[in-house]
Amino acid sequence: MNHAEIRSRFRDAVGPARYCKFVVETHRSGRLRYWQEQLWEPFAAEHSLHLEFPALKDCCAVCHVHGCRLDTDTVPIIYGTPITPTDAELNVPQTLFPCAGLAAGGGCCVGEQTTADVQFCPDCRTAHERWVSQVFKRDIATADSQEIRLYLAAKASKFNAESPTDCLLRYYKSWKPPRSPADSALADIVAVVTEIHRAVTTNDPRVDVAALLSSVYPMFALTASCDTDSMILDHCKMHYIAANAIVHG
Question: What is the top-level taxon of the source organism (predicted)?
Answer without folding.
Answer: Bacteria
